[in-house]
Write a structure and sequence with these properties.
By secondary structure, this protein is mostly helical. Helices cover about 55% and strands about 0% of the residues.
Length: about 170
């Protein structure tokens, strides 16, 4: 993905912006997954590819790849087979689960595998969040509280069985 290419080249977003002539805002949105390289004009994509020392084909192909769930994350999917999870079809489940019980490594994986819009969609539609994850999504992905299914639920999170019972529904 674009983020991985930039990280591998060890170039700052500011430097990439200056050298390519593409606005910092556009570069930052690409890096954060708010837009894809396919959203850019060919001229813009070519300028970015030149600075990154790659060609357009590689840049487009890399942006379309999705990583697989690392085997070290299997412990987070105790109720399913991680090898059978499809990153696209099961994205709500995967994002919710890894944000709820994972740490910085799972977050970094999610940021490389999913877009800003994917996170926003999960924040708005998932009922499988814990309170901290819901608050994280609310604050970091520009979601209104009244649009989040999590906050529309009537669950007493102080009850130890509430999360378990809500989670088992796999909405």
């Amino acid at each position: 993905m674009f983020t991985e290419i930039v990280n591998n080249k060890k170039i700052s977003l500011y430097s990439l912006s200056k050298k390519s002539g593409v606005s910092y805002t556009a570069i930052n949105e690409l890096y954060r997954g708010e837009r894809t390289i396919e959203d850019c004009s060919v001229k813009t994509a070519k300028a970015i590819a030149d600075v990154l020392g790659t060609d357009l084909d590689t840049l487009y192909k890399e942006s379309l790849k999705r990583p697989e769930i690392p085997s070290s994350f299997n412990k987070y999917f105790w109720d399913s087979n991680p090898k059978e999870l499809d990153l696209e079809k099961n994205k709500t489940y995967i994002i919710s689960r890894l944000l709820n019980v994972g740490g910085i490594k799972t977050y970094n994986f999610l940021m490389s595998a999913y877009t800003y819009q994917d996170f926003k969609h999960v924040g708005e539609t998932s009922k499988m969040l814990n309170p901290k994850t819901a608050l994280f999504l609310l604050n970091n992905f520009n979601i209104k509280k009244e649009n989040m299914q999590f906050y529309k639920q009537k669950i007493d999170w102080r009850n130890p069985d509430a999360f378990r019972n809500n989670w088992s529904k796999k909405n």
